[in-house]
Amino acid sequence: MNFRWADGVQQLPELAAELVRMNVDVIFAPSSTMVEPARQATKTIPIVFANHGDPIGTGHVASLPRPGGNITGLSELVTDLNAKAMEMLREAVPGATRIGVLWNPTTPSQVPGLQSIKAAGEKLGLALHMVSATRAEDFDAALASMARESVGGIFVVPSPLTLMQRAPLAELALKHRLPTMFSARENAEAGGLMSYGVDRNDLVRRAALYIDKILKGAKPADLPVEQASKYQLVINLKTAKALGLELPWFLQQRADEVIE
Asked: What pLDDT score does 107 carry?
């Protein structure tokens, strides 16, 4: 195996090109952020993803049953997840009429995903304050902007950045007294208020089966994109107490894990 690790998205195109020059058999690119530079680097080497937010909306596959090119893998069904997570954030802060949305323009799947967030906000009668952040250094100003707008909570659209920088992001949310909803359990474990999303470990294990099939001769174009089947709600009661927030009992009862 040949591993490549980027400190920022700007390094990804060269790393993808390097793997292509090495003529590897398969490129494992977990999310849309990694798939896009790999897609630009090769149209022939198979590319497998594990937690893509929206493979159709980004144009990375033609359809879920028939991907049609050299890319396939597992999808998070982010459109449905966004709506459900927004609903649970509203339940956690029932008096809120305005919600902040933190998103990252460098994550390809977020652009189509934002439409589902806007639709969910409209359905719930919430005004949304959208703020983008492409670097960890942008977080403080983004959250300060939301605090000035008196948002009742923050919906954080998932990206590799918000996962890797989960500890400082959770600290800043506490500093600004803002309840947060994430998709990755690691964000809740790091101090975020809640997370609702897929079991990413399960998706990675399933992606390994795709890689095995491709190495045995299967073509990505013929391997249907599978969807996530395991979901987790994690609530951090320690963070709730720090925020002075009394979470509804029915919400706590639905949690797969409660951090106390």
From this structure: 84
Rounded Cα gap, residues 212 and 223, in angstroms: 12
Q: How many domains, in total, are found in the chain?
A: 2
Residues 89, 167 within the same domain: yes
Rounded Cα distance between 61 and 54, Å, is: 9
State residue 229's pLDDT score: 82
Place of tokens 């605090």: 147
- Please tell me whether residues 161 and 110 are part of one structural domain: yes
pLDDT along the chain (260 residues), means of 10: 76 93 95 93 96 89 95 84 90 94 88 85 94 95 96 93 94 97 95 93 92 96 91 96 95 94
Q: Are residues 223 and 106 in the same domain?
A: no
| Cα–Cα distance for residue pair 45/172, rounded to 1 Å | 41
Judged by DSSP in three states, 227 sits in: strand
Region for 77 from its dihedrals, namely left if φ exceeds 0, alpha if ψ lies in -120 to 50, beta otherwise: left
- Cβ proximity of 62 and 68 under 8 Å: yes
Both tokens assigned to 172: 């800043």
Classified as helix, coil or strand, 247 is: coil
Q: What is the pLDDT of residue 123?
A: 92
Calpha distance 20→3 (Å, rounded) = 13
Angle at the Cα of 93 from the Cα atoms of 89 and 98, rounded to 5 degrees: 80
- What CATH number has the domain bearing residue 179? 3.40.50.2300
